[in-house]
Amino acid sequence: MRLLKKVLKYTLIFVLLLVTTGYVYLYVLPKGPDVTPVSAIKNGEDSFVIYAYKDSKRKSIKVRTYKPEAWQDGQKIIFVMHGGGRNADDYLDAWKGIADENNFLVVAPEFASKFADIATNDYQEGNLFTFFGTRNPREEWAYTVVENIFDHLKSVNSISNKGYDIFGHSAGGQFVHRMVMLLPESRIETAIAANAGFYTFPDSELGFPYGIRKTGIALEPEIRQAYQRKLIILLGELDNDPSLGIFRTTEPAMEQGGHRLERGSNFYEANRQLKDRNNWAFNWEIDTVMNVGHNYRKMSQNAVRWLIPPTQE
User: Fold this and answer.
1) For the chain, what is the radius of gyration of the CA atoms?
2) From CA 143, how far away is CA 125, in angstroms rounded?
3) C-alpha distances in Å from residue 87, one per residue of 111, 204, 242, 277
4) Residue 313: its pLDDT value, please?
5) What angle do CA 39, 32, 245 make, to 5 degrees?
């Protein structure tokens, strides 16, 4: 009995030390690449590194950009959110041709992490909570980081744009729809969430990230306000194979549907029904891309039509 108590005691001490060490490493020690000198972004492909938070130097973030030579102040700025592979370079590459054809300034933040395979809280779940379940302040949410990057771009490059568009695929699609819901006061003009793996439903009784319980967000006023933003749920007709990419199979996730196409459809319908019950304004739409599966390049190409104003007769 004494031996068992001793084993339990030292096991508990070891676990506490492990958790404390992990917390300090992840949330106290500085993280990220070295911040670069402040300078205007160049034409073509470029990048810069800034502090992610306005009042802290604890975390930095690399931001990749692509600016067509013809782009001018006031023309569209598109934030492109990478997938779970944290591969902002690949996503930027997918948007270069699109940018040249449509004169978009493309901004691709890189939420790099050594633990991306096991921890999703810092990116697609918005960094509302730490890996250990404690709450992060609003100024450290990943969604706030996007707003900070926009402020930096405006200040350093003398940009007068009042807002920006945002596209995300897969984990990036998770990021985008949650940003619209959880930070409805952001300066997003058009948001496109493509092929998200699973969603945050407007359910106050369901814990985050599957619902909004304990997020500090309520149906009224935040979700009602989010419905007034322009959000496109963009789905691939062939994204019905759960073996593609990283597909969450927890019980709450599986209740949303057996594959991404079904989950996206169910998410949109749940929100449409909620707005009908409350007679709220609703500016969300759903669009299914024919003959495309879980492919960020093809989904990017098909997102463009939602970003270009219709030709006026």
Assistant:
1) 20
2) 10
3) 9, 33, 21, 40
4) 35
5) 110
* Total residues belonging to the chain: 313
Domain residue ranges of the chain, discontinuous segments joined by +: 1-30, 32-306
Strands (E) located in the chain: 44-51, 60-67, 77-81, 105-110, 164-169, 188-194, 230-236, 284-289
pLDDT mean values, one per 10 residues, the chain (313 residues): 59 55 49 93 98 94 98 97 97 98 98 87 96 93 98 98 98 98 97 98 97 95 97 98 89 97 98 98 98 97 92 44
Contact 61, 32 (CB under 8 A): yes
Cα-Cα end-to-end distance for the chain? 86
pTM above the 0.85 mark?
A: yes
DSSP code, position 137: P
Tell me the one-letter amino acid at 98: I
| Exposure string for 205-217, b = 16+ CB within 10 A, e = fewer | eeebbbbbeebeb
Angstrom CA distances, 235 to 153, 196, 249, 260, 269, stand at 30, 8, 19, 8, 14
3-state secondary structure of 156: helix
- CATH code given to domain 32-306: 3.40.50.1820
The token duo for 164 is: 């920006």
